């Protein structure tokens, strides 16, 4: 642009009058555009300088930044405030921690140097806090500066009470819902309880606090259903039933499954007993009576839940638990014995059958890390359980029948014997861990080992 202007000035000295005026007009336009460009650059530089903090300075805390901090404070504390209300209603305030309902924060007022750098920004910041001070407690202080005189500067915001913190954090509606539902919870569920029979423990209060946010966010219909379910559980604390059987309108298995943590935790806190609502059918365990002289209602091969098996009349002296179903179905007959499919890791449910505590228990699983993990789980419930065909000698005799184990477990085993640990270590010692499945061991070898373990001949 400057070169164009110099070229035009040169033309002015050698051109006629009319041509000279035209060139002057073009030169004037170029000069105006140059001036505009300089002004734009200056404005951009000023704007950039306003955004840059002075070295060593601190940013003033805006109202919106303070609201965000107050919101984080509110979200952290309001569950404890709700639980405090419940504890006070039960005269158990000493059993819960007290979350402060007072919150204050410094506003980081500007220094004299910062005000001089951008007095418009400092003025707007102070005015925003003066407007906030019409509703909330904002402390101002007087600063006397040589360059700008005496100024009343916002210094600190103090909020007292849960309602005021919620209001400043723009969570007033949320807090109102929390208050309403906490009061309804006290009136409908907590107050009618037999306090002498069951005072809420610190663990119960912790359960409430853990679920306060969920209780507040529930749609109104679900909130009412939850209250109805919990009230029914209070009136029938020891009843065991499927979710489908709950006599509460609008509540079905899917609803209970979706809200199961609320129902389980709050139900236990209110009743002092575990909730016995079943969501799924209990695991059915396949059973074979290996003594050919015995039957159960004429049946020798059947399936039943652990609860049903607990009522088996005249239970056998010996139980062989097999990891795989085919192994159970091909067990040879033995006197006074019963075979049972452990259903893998569900073997823990089998261990809940009371008469197994007095029976001799043999466990036969795959020779792999998971087989030993299942044995370890069974033995954590039944320490007297013995393993069969899960020893180093069986592994060595059939090493050629092993296959690689693509997903060995890394669980810790605390209930294995020395021989079992030796067999497991041998399986895991290869570059690719090995496994020896039950079905790959010759049937005759299995029968001989089982007969030896039983210490008796076939019936």
UniProtKB/TrEMBL annotation:
InterPro entries: DUF3322, JetD_C. Pfam families: DUF3322, JetD_C. It comes from the Bacteria. Residues 280-449 form the Wadjet protein JetD C-terminal domain. Residues 104-266 form the DUF3322 domain. This is Wadjet protein JetD C-terminal domain-containing protein.
